[in-house]
Amino acid sequence: SGGLQLLGFVLAFLGWIGIIISTAMPQWKMASYAGDNIVTAQALYEGLWMSCAMQSTGQIQCKVYDSLLKLESSLQATRALMVAAILLGLVAVFVAVTGMKCMKCMEDDQVKKMRMAVFGGVIFIIAGLAALVATSWYGNRVARAFYDPFTPVNTRFEFGSALFIGWAAASLAMLGGAFLCCSCPRRETSYPPTRGYPKNAPSTGKDYV
């Protein structure tokens, strides 16, 4: 139905916005470090683009990563997947909007319009999968480093809030995309019986009279 289609689009769109926010956030992994004195306590954050340190005074200092060549290949791959998810989501937004029943584009061809909505849903699902793979892969690396006995205590990072936002956003994008895919075929298959039988029934009744 049109309601399910609209709900799917809203969920997928919110998921896409969440993927953008997650990608931009520096809190992909975080660690707290306290020296001999509590005054030196600070929280360390690392993201896809920069690392930040928050002092106990509340002051935050961030440093953008210098060179692409110096970064780990896994971090570059995570970046690439998240950027791909954002670009795919952008394409999905335009495709799905074109195919939605409440929009006036392509009204003359309802079948093509429905296919556009389904296609938009599929792209949203792929975008969500890309973000899910990126965040899960990054989270797995953080967990492995945390439990590695050779990792110094001062450099043990935990999951940052950006990872949780990324997981939730990826799930929303995939769920919304699935709703977009499910809403159209049902509508298409329900057309023939409703068109065929009601029209024939009254006409046959009139013939007998």
Automatic annotation (TrEMBL):
Keyword Transmembrane helix annotated: yes
Ranges that cross the membrane: 7-25, 77-97, 117-139, 159-182
GO cellular component: bicellular tight junction; plasma membrane
Main location: other
PANTHER family recorded: CLAUDIN
Protein purpose: Claudins function as major constituents of the tight junction complexes that regulate the permeability of epithelia.
Protein name: Claudin
Gene name of this polypeptide: Cldn1
